[in-house]
């Protein structure tokens, strides 16, 4: 019988159960289970299939569909991450740590879209209107035709939006929204889910674009269930290291464009400034060739981006040596250390290993394997790589080097920035040129032998 029985929902993973417990069975989190009243109940005792609904109109796959009309805001780094501009009737989620600059970015975006001709409404649930206006003045955006309100009541917001009919509504943030038909506190899973659902429904109903701001937890998940990510069309993360001025807007999901595209910004006194040549920026602090520093020619979305991997290897005073990684995957580092140890006979036991990607960049490509291995070896041997060298390639568990995609683009970007040598796996479609000498190898052991004269 479908009766309004209480539901117990884990606030971390969203798993629901019929009884309370101190620990979530699904994700193992302690003290995360909260009682929630279900939103709405169907007719008691009847499954949906038993009562007759409306017959759907089915169409063919071949029916002609024009590409969605897009509005570009002329902030190129944002337009590209959106897949070429904002699509009507779409919902975008922008996640990021508190204080990273989401409100700043979206206020600038609001002004830019308003200047591009959209009717823009900016609803802040966190800051008073005066505060937002002050920021707009500081950013020199006060004259942009953006409509502003401070509100957290979802019903009032929806009524306003339905009446004003904006082309773009920005909600800052989804965690502060409060739906009065849901019986739990703002920021809880059910509230976040209800607010996201109502606001996406508004976007589809009115053909407006909706941008939701979401806070990210320590572990990097959007606070609230992952279901919000499934509800929206596009998920962007705004990330960066505290203490660095670089900010990266990364699309992790996009129904209207490529995922994994990045936009690079710099936080300045006057707001976020676009960085159109990120390679130059990430390599700007590079000095003379130093042991442990290796330049990696990577691909972020559709763009090649050069970054510097820095490694430090030092004798460990601990019985369990430290493995510390910033900007790359820790388990991937463990794998490369294991391959170096068992396939090339280079032990890292008793040594602390630190790995860092310069400039606060985060690299997710396996193509960086060889650059990481090179940085580790260079640090361990205290020998810098030859100057003006870039490195890329994937390493397999057998120690073989695998060619990676977009080799041409990687080489071209490196040549553009003045690099003259590339170390990469053999095979693939790489072609050297006068400006770019290629050193190709088929396995990690020959890389070690050739570059560090050992192995
Ligand atoms: P904010 O956009 O409020 O972050 P979020 O909405 O993600 O919590 O940005 C907060 C930080 O940005 C704050 O520490 C100050 C800094 N900032 C600048 O450096 N320059 C600026 O022009 C602005 C508006 C903010
Ligand atoms: Mg904010």
Brief summary:
This protein is an alpha/beta fold. The protein has eleven helices and 21 strands.
Describe this structure in words.
Helix content is about 25%, strand content about 25%. It is α/β, with parallel strands linked by helices. The chain folds into three domains: about 1-45, no CATH class; about 75-275, Rossmann fold (3-Layer(aba) Sandwich), CATH 3.40.50; about 280-450, Ribosomal Protein S5, domain 2, CATH 3.30.230.10. A nine-stranded mixed sheet has the order 6-5-7-8-4-9-10-11-12. Strands 15-16-14-13-17-20-21 form a seven-stranded mixed sheet. A hairpin with a 6-residue loop joins strand 9 (about 235-240) and strand 10 (about 245-255). It starts with 6 loop residues before the first strand and ends with a helix. Magnesium ion binds near residues 102, 103, 126 and 172. One of its GO terms (cellular component) is cytosol.
What's the CATH class of the largest domain, please?
A: Alpha Beta
Q: What is the terminal-to-terminal distance?
A: 70 Å
Strand order of the largest sheet: 6-5-7-8-4-9-10-11-12
Work out the count of structural domains: 3
State the helix count: 11
Oligomer: single chain
- Class per helix and strand makeup: alpha/beta
The rounded Rg comes to 26 Å
Strand content: 15-25%
What's the CATH architecture of the largest domain? 3-Layer(aba) Sandwich
CATH fold title of the largest domain:
Rossmann fold
CATH superfamily of the largest domain: P-loop containing nucleotide triphosphate hydrolases
Overall pLDDT metric: 89
What are the low-pLDDT stretches, counting only 5+ consecutive residues below 50?
A: none
The total of beta strands comes to 21
Overall geometry comes to globular
What hetero molecules are in the model? thymidine-5'-diphosphate, magnesium ion
